[in-house]
TrEMBL record:
InterPro entries: Gp5/Vgr_OB, Vgr_OB-fold_dom_sf
Superkingdom assignment: Bacteria
Source species of the chain: Bacteroides thetaiotaomicron
UniProt name for this protein: Gp5/Type VI secretion system Vgr protein OB-fold domain-containing protein
Domain Gp5/Type VI secretion system Vgr protein OB-fold, chain residue ranges per copy: 366-446
């Protein structure tokens, strides 16, 4: 082993170089980097930390920090840029004390508080750009995601900008990390490796492998096409070396039971889900083999590959493989000696394992309907959450839950309850599987300006449309107990439960049409007509009256085109001012079973011609 003190470190704060006693810098993939720089004041009067104004020390927060680690001989250098977020002043046993400048990578600027936002029909790159612009407080990012398809809807849900970016990077299989100087969303293609050798650059090395389940599938559903989506683990993974191939083979033999889960990310096409499952499988594959070590070279950098060698004196197979550094802790102790500890995965893998992502669990929220003019005509609506109003944003077209919805042989469309909320309605929006990017309307809500409840004792249930058409069910047995169907113009069908009556009221006409037979059964029948009555019968009309028929009219005219037959069981009485009976052709025959009497008060004549 050569001397470990091969690296010189320098620290500058706010552009000015600072003398330090210790440095601790932890860099992790897909996480914030943190540092702690210790500055020891000498034990001289006026120069200990307590002599300094605490306010001026606190004012150091927010200052920029640059840590440079440089190899004395080769000149290789690693640079870290961060921000002071905390000042610590420690004293013990009368020593003048130590100042600690603690802070994070500039990624901390994306942690400006949990918030809500949404993105409709954005690409992943556009989402990242807007989040960094609105919530990054000036942080810069290299924005080059591999997944470039349009995403129908993505919702930032009670997350900081950093938490949201970390989540969508995980869901869409993207790299997301800070390399010490730049924040990357997407693979920066840093593939130039540094060779490090055990017992030369590495004081300690640990190589390992594990097994993990691989027989899994994902499913989803596209409502726009009524299409179930399915993806399985059959996709191949790029970058598999011999270590990984053996670990995969063992894993598949150990875990043979297939599993399935709902897809974690919103996709706009079935092909996209297959790609996302391929990304997920790649992440799991990358986690099968790892390398850990302790080194004295600052050429071990976060996100970059190293080629690890074993000395020739130890083995014939010197190459231990190439590994991409997923975490590294740099330390400079009080003696000025530099070292680091690190972890890595096979550098050939395109996907990075991520373990610190929290998926939000979205709960129902109130929203307002912005539009119900669904371009696909399938009953969807666009809604706006309260928090979207100032952003002038909405959801995409989302489905509306119904009590019953479907199809049948007789009804290809709209079988069930069709009640699409109106524009301006307040609705309750829930989320499929708690995924904030999968909203749907679960119901509508009344509020103080548009609801009046079910009247006294909750006696009234009703359905009222936008124009005022009404179906009302009244359970007030001491009042208007019954059912009312009424349109906006007060044309009404009223079922009076109290009086056992049905009342039909029309402002103009009532037309009843029966394809075959119409039957009216009643104890009494009253027909009141203010003007005219027309009865048209194309074939026959039979009127059977058990007792009496009474007709009253100013005039009565009957026209019979063929025959008239009158059969009277007993008496026939006909009284008139004048009677004129005339046949246009043929005879008049009067017959009597007994006597025939023709009698005139003044005269009686029978004449010819």
């Amino acid at each position: 082993m050569t001397d470990w003190n091969q690296v010189e470190a320098t620290v500058s704060i706010g552009g000015s170089e600072c003398k330090f006693t210790t440095i601790y810098l932890k860099q992790v993939f897909n996480g914030h980097h943190v540092f702690d720089i210790g500055v020891l004041c000498p034990p001289l009067p006026g120069e200990n930390i307590w002599y300094n104004e605490r306010e001026s020390m606190i004012a150091m927060q927010g200052q920029s920090v640059v840590i440079r680690m440089k190899h004395v001989i080769s000149g290789d250098e690693s640079i870290f840029k961060g921000i002071i977020t905390e000042i610590g002043m420690d004293g013990e046993r009368g020593v003048s004390g130590t100042i600690h400048y603690r802070g994070c990578s500039p990624t901390i600027l994306l942690e400006s508080g949990k918030t809500m936002d949404s993105f409709m029909d954005y690409t992943l790159s556009a989402i990242v750009g807007e989040v960094v612009k609105n919530y990054g407080n000036g942080v810069e990012i290299v924005n080059k995601p591999l997944f470039n398809e349009q995403i129908p809807y993505a919702q930032m849900h009670e997350e900081t900008g950093y938490e949201f970016l970390r989540r969508i990077a995980y869901q869409y299989g993207e790299w997301f990390y800070y390399d010490g100087q730049k924040l990357h969303f997407g693979n920066p293609q840093k593939d130039k490796d540094e060779t490090v050798t055990y017992d030369v650059d590495l004081d300690k090395v640990s190589f390992g492998s594990r097994v993990t389940p691989f027989h899994y599938s994902r499913h989803d559903y596209m409502a726009e096409d009524d299409r179930p989506l399915y993806a399985d683990d059959s996709a191949s993974v790029n970058g598999i070396n011999t270590y990984l191939a053996n670990a995969i083979s063992t894993s598949e033999s150990v875990y043979q039971s297939p599993t399935t889960l709902y897809n974690k990310a919103v996709v706009g096409h079935p092909v996209h889900m297959n790609r996302l499952l391929e990304f997920e499988k790649g992440r799991d594959t990358a986690s099968l083999v790892w390398l850990k070590g302790k080194s004295k070279t600052c050429r071990v950098r976060i996100g970059e590959p190293i080629a690890v060698k074993i000395p020739a004196s130890m083995c014939d197979r010197r190459d231990l493989g190439k590994y991409r550094v997923m975490s590294v802790i740099h330390e400079v102790d009080k003696n000025g000696v530099y070292s680091n500890t690190f972890e890595g995965i096979p550098a050939s893998m395109e996907r990075i394992p991520v373990n610190n992502v929290v998926l939000p669990d979205a709960r129902p929220m109130l929203a307002k309907v912005i539009s119900n003019t669904d371009p696909e005509n399938i009953g969807r609506v666009q809604v706006q959450f309260v928090w979207q109003e100032n952003q002038n944003k909405t959801t995409n077209w989302i489905r509306v839950r119904s009590l019953d919805a479907g199809t049948s042989k007789a009804v290809p469309k709209n079988r069930g309850f069709v009640f699409v909320p109106e524009k301006g309605d307040q609705v309750l929006v829930d989320f499929e599987f708690g995924n904030p990017s999968c909203p749907y309307v679960s119901g509508s809500m009344f509020h103080t300006n548009n609801g009046e409840g079910g009247k006294s004792e909750n006696s009234v249930k009703s359905i009222i449309t936008r124009s005022g058409h009404l179906i009302e069910f009244n359970d007030d047995e001491g009042g208007e107990w019954g059912i009312t169907i009424e349109d906006r113009k007060k044309n009404t069908i009223k079922i009076d439960t109290s009086g056992d009556n049905i009342l039909i009221t029309a402002n103009k006409d009532v037309t009843i049409t029966a394809g075959e037979t119409m039957t009216l059964n009643a104890k009494n029948l009253n027909i009141n007509v203010e003007e005219n009555t027309n009865v048209n019968v194309k074939d026959s009309a039979n009127i059977d009256v058990g007792k009496n028929i009474k007709q009253t009219s100013t005039n009565l005219e009957e026209v019979i085109n063929d025959k008239l037959s009158l059969n009277i069981g007993k008496n026939f009485n006909c009284k008139s001012g004048d009677i004129d009976i005339e046949t246009f052709k043929g005879d008049i025959i009067l017959k009597s079973a007994s006597k025939a009497l023709l009698q005139g008060a003044d005269d009686a004549r029978v004449s010819k011609g």
